[in-house]
Amino acid sequence: MDQTLKSFNFIPALLIALFLFLSVSCNQNDEQRKFEREAISLPQNITETNENGKIVEGREDPDDWRIGPFFQGVVYVEPLPFPNPLLTNQRLNLNIFVTGVDGVSGLRVLVLYAESSARPLYESNTSPLPTGVTSISLAAGDIARFDENPQGLYRIIVQDRQGVIITYGDVRIE
Question: Which end of the chain has less Cβ packing within 10 Å, N or C?
C-alpha cells in the first residue's frame, strides 16, 4: 500500500514538471518567433564601427546584432561587424563566436532586400560548428543589390543550417 501511495504522488509531480517544461519551451519558442519577425523587417539604422571593430561612441543601434533566444549564451558576435559603414571597395568582417559544444549546426549568412527577397552570402555545413571564432569576410559588392549602384542600407541575417535566425544587423555601403 505504501508503494502505491508513493507512485500516486510521483505521477502528479511528473505531470507538473512536464507542464512547466512545456510552458518554458513554448515561451522560448514565442520569443524566438518574435525575434525572427523583427529580423526580417527593413533595415533602419547601423551600429557604426571603425576598421578595428570598435563601436564609434554614440553610434550604436540597440537592435543590431542581438542574439536570438535559442542561441543566447552559446553564440556571440564579437567584435561587431566592421567597418560599418563600409566603402564599395571594402570588405565587411563578421566574427561569430561559438562557446557551446553542439551549440550550432551549420551557418548561413544572407542579405535581405526590400522586396523580402534574400541572397546567400556565405554557407558552412559544418555540424556542429567548432567552438571558437568563425570569421567571415564579405565584399561590399556581394552585399549590394546592384553593382552599378551599391550604396545603401542592407539587413544581414545569420542563421543555422535549419534556418533558425541566430542574429541580424544592418550595414551601410557608402
Answer: N
Cell numbers describing residue 130: 567548432
Residues 38, 64: Cα–Cα separation, whole Å: 11
Grid cell 509531480 is found at 13
Smallest CA-to-CA distance from 36 within 4, 69, 58 is with 69
Q: What angle do CA 22, 23, 29 make, to 5 degrees?
A: 85
Instruction: Answer yes or no: are the C-beta atoms of 172 and 153 closer than 8 Å.
Output: yes
Say what the pTM is. Answer: 0.81
Q: Looking at residue 100, what is its pLDDT? A: 79
Choose among 168, 170, 148, 174: nearest CA to 59: 170
User: Each residue of 118-133: pLDDT tens digit?
Assistant: 899 999 998 888 899 9
What single-letter amino acid sits at 130? P
Backbone angles phi, psi at 146, to 5 degrees: -125, 135
HSE (side-chain half, CA atoms, 13 Å) at 104: 34
Sign, CA torsion 28/118/93/103: positive
Contact criterion met (CB below 8 Å) for 145 and 152: yes
Question: What dotted CATH number matches 40-173?
Answer: 2.60.40.1930
Domain boundaries, the chain: 40-173
